[in-house]
Structure formats: structure tokens, C-alpha cells
Amino acid sequence: MCTLLLYAVVFAGAAYIFRQIFVKGKRCKSQLNLTGKTVIVTGSNTGIGKTTAIDLAKRGARVILACRNEQRGLSALEEVKKATGSSQVVFMQLNLGSMKSVRSFAETFLKNESRLDILINNAGVYMQGRTSDGLGLMFGVNHIGHFLLTHLLLDRLKQCGPSRIVNVSSLGHNFGNIDFDCLTTHNALGLGTSFKEVFQYYCDSKLCNVLFTHELAKKLQGTQVTCYSLHPGAIKTELARNTNSLMQLTITPLMAFFFKNPVQGSQTTLHCALQQGIEHLSGRYFSNCTVRDVYPKAKDDVAAKRLWELSEKLTGLA
């Protein structure tokens, strides 16, 4: 009995140290005041998107909650207002799985809002399916929707410079590969539905985020707009809510112990959006509030340009 108790104490101590060092992570150190600035956060009705919006609103920013589900978006709007005491928080409906919705959102925003200082492309899905435009769901939402949104808002960002674009990616991009033949033929990263295949396509979509940022930084040279991609950490959020019940049963206990909470998970997003002095790192990838090197495939100029050109074609921008 004493031996078991000793083991339990040792395990609890080791677990605490592990969480402090590897799970909790660094915090954004910026004290920047955002009064008079306007920020868009996609997917801000839940998880790290909502906690990011709360932090920005507390700093005085006008925050646009860009969310697909109106009911959940309006509920988040009330939560953010209550948490911050700010009246400068607005909900605008945005379905990244519909290019019509993205164009409508951008048109309404540009008509009603005079500024855009920070665009945070945070929303993401983890499930197979098709968008209303016939694209693979994870490719369409995680990449194409944000690609189009960024392009439609880019002139306003340039007018309000210095400004920033933050693309929330994932460590999973390291496992990603882009099958351009499949994209060209099927408008999707892949067609399988097994657990392994769906995970692979998610990682592929996150590689798209990093390559998009890499190429975007080149296009933005000479402007006052900078861009960054990032891994927020393993987060206890609702991203996997559409996965099968077996996966949810498996990861839920792990999430409760080994994963960051949304506040901890939002810190690298905030760092990329706010930290002064990182402008020369435009196009780079961050994790734990620190710039990181990436594998060659995540900074492949040929692949990044090819993805850009294909994305232009699919969105009708070419």
C-alpha cells in the first residue's frame, strides 16, 4: 500500500513538472494597446479563437467575430462582451466552406468598417466531406476559404499598415504532403475516409497553411503587411467534435491532462499578432511564442507557388 502511494506521489509530481514545462508553454509578453485598431478572428465562437478575441477586446480593439454558425456566434458575442466589458465586439457570419459567403462577408466588412489592422485566420475543421463549391472540406475550409478571404481584404490591410496576417496551422503540417494530382483531378487532398486517411488530409491542409504564408510573405515584400503561421499547441478544444466516437473516447482523457487549455493555446497566436520586433520574420512559422525552423517541404518555393496558382484558379482570382 505504501509502495503504491509512493508511486502515485512520484507520478503526480512528474506529471506536474511535465505540464509546467511541456504543456503550459510560454505566454505572449506584448502589452500593446489596440485602441482604434480593428481585428478579424475567424472561428472565434469557441476554443482558442474565442480566447484570442477576448484578449484583443481587452486591449481595446474592435473585434469582428467571423463565425459560420449564427446561434453559436451570437452566444460567443455575448460571452466576449461580458468578459471584456467592451462594446466594440461584432458578430459577422462567415462560412469558409462557401466562396459566396466569403465574398459576401468581405463585401459587407469593407462597406461598414474603415480599418483592418490584424486578420487572424484561425478557423479549421477535422472531417471529410465537400464544401458547397465541391472542394474537399478540409482543403476548402482550412486553406481555400482563408486564401480567398485574405486576398479580398488585402488592400484594406495595406491601407492600414503596419498590419498583420496570422494563419493558425499545426505541428501536423510536418506529416503533411500535398498531392497536386489529386487536387487537380478531385479538388481534394484525398478521398479516403479511414481514421489514418482523414488525419493525413488534415495534416496536408495544415501544410497548405504554412506554404501559403511562405508565398504570401514574398508577395507582401515592400508593403507594411507581414504574415506568420503557427502551431498553437495541442489544445483542449472542439476541433475533433466531428470525429468518430471511438477517437473521442480515446483522446478525451488525454486532452484533460496533456493538452493546453484555450487560454494557453492562444498565446502564440497573440504573439504573432502583437509582438513588436518580429516584422523581419514575416513568412516564418512559430510555436510556443518562438520562431521555428521547418522542414524543406514547408518552405518549398516550387510547391508554394504551385499551391498559390492553383488556389487562384479555384477561387476565380486568376
Automatic annotation (TrEMBL):
GO terms for molecular function: oxidoreductase activity. InterPro entries: NAD(P)-bd_dom_sf (IPR036291), SDR_fam (IPR002347). The keyword Metal-binding does not apply. It holds the Pfam family adh_short. SUPFAM superfamilies: NAD(P)-binding Rossmann-fold domains. Keywords: Oxidoreductase. The keyword Transmembrane does not apply. Belongs to the short-chain dehydrogenases/reductases (SDR) family. PANTHER family: DEHYDROGENASE_REDUCTASE (SDR FAMILY) MEMBER 13-LIKE 1 (PTHR43157:SF51), PHOSPHATIDYLINOSITOL-GLYCAN BIOSYNTHESIS CLASS F PROTEIN-RELATED (PTHR43157). This is Dehydrogenase/reductase SDR family member 13-like. It comes from Salarias fasciatus. The gene is LOC115401086.
